[in-house]
Amino acid sequence: MKWPNINPLCIEAMEAATKRVNSLTKPLHSLGQLEKMAIRLAGITGHPFPEVSQKAVVVMCGDHGIAKAGVSAYPQEVTGLMIHNFVNGKAAINVLSHLAGANVHVVDVGSYLEEIPEVVIDKKVRFGTRNFAEEPAMTQSEVEQAIQVGIDMVSQLKKQGVQLLAVGEMGIGNTTVATALTAAFTGRPVEELVGRGTGLDDQSYQHKTDIIKQALALHQPDPEKPLQVLAQVGGLEVAAMAGAYIGAASAGMPVLVDGVISTVAAYVAVKLIPRVQDYLFASHQSVEPAHLVLLQALDLQPIIHADLCLGEASGAALAFPLIDAAVAIVREMATFADLGLPNPN
């Protein structure tokens, strides 16, 4: 698979933004992450006064064969029901995106739905993945098709004027996928990574742990072969999100990463093209144990700590106003020079 070109961050814009931030009427570094975000946004956009007001959310949807192994508290049909909920504008991501002034784009890359609502973007690679407790979840060709869906989707959004992206997902069973991928890539014990997902009881939690361990023993994933690992224990929506991150970086677009599933997709994207990391902002740290492991592996500092674990890009949508705040301080705050004072910084 041929990867798109990704430019390095613009050092000149970052230096100019740093100079501006350090001249504002406040103690040095007193706005914390907002300052760091403003400077990196300058590097991404190539402008010391970045403009990211045009926002979009992409929700990649797909079903998972591994759900047949009883790893979720919810039935498989919920994926399709939630796709309809997105369409009706009644899901959490719809509400939160509306507050932030962002449009939501729902992409079906692999659900079991046979009749897809008209406003859903139909990019289905196949009807769900295979059960990776028994066989590889996907072929490499299917993985590459799903990645391309994400790349192409962001390319279209860029042409429509989108300047800031949030990426999320929907797919029953996908915390199992995210945990398996995290264990495969990081080598951490499965027991340290498994979370409760949609609300598993103790017995189901242990069953989920056992299923993941058995699958990893079956496939023996090689962490240095990310496409192969995705094919073995991944998901179609995870591959599509990885493509979206690659597409955003290629388009020079900052992108907000959501929870554990969104973040494992970001990890895959960075494994494929390390420069993607420069374009990622971690919106929050979820309660899923694997999420912190992934954030640390990516050297990303989460913006929000609110005990979230929903997915859908809900945490990413909540972070939109903080990105706006980072831009606003650079654009609108006075400098010491504006007040006729020497800069103590």
From TrEMBL:
A single GO BP: cobalamin biosynthetic process
Could you tell me what reaction this enzyme catalyses? 5,6-dimethylbenzimidazole + nicotinate beta-D-ribonucleotide = alpha-ribazole 5'-phosphate + nicotinate + H(+)
Q: Which UniProt keywords apply?
A: Cobalamin biosynthesis, Glycosyltransferase, Transferase
Active site, UniProt feature: E312
Could you cite one Gene Ontology molecular function of this protein? nicotinate-nucleotide-dimethylbenzimidazole phosphoribosyltransferase activity
Q: Which Pfam families match?
A: DBI_PRT
> Is this entry keyworded Transferase?
yes
Part of which pathway? Nucleoside biosynthesis; alpha-ribazole biosynthesis; alpha-ribazole from 5,6-dimethylbenzimidazole: step 1/2
What Enzyme Commission number does this protein have?
2.4.2.21
> Superkingdom, according to UniProt?
Bacteria
Q: Which PANTHER family match?
A: NICOTINATE-NUCLEOTIDE--DIMETHYLBENZIMIDAZOLE PHOSPHORIBOSYLTRANSFERASE (PTHR43463)
Q: What is the recorded name of this protein?
A: Nicotinate-nucleotide--dimethylbenzimidazole phosphoribosyltransferase
- Cite the source lineage: Bacteria, Bacillati, Bacillota, Bacilli, Bacillales
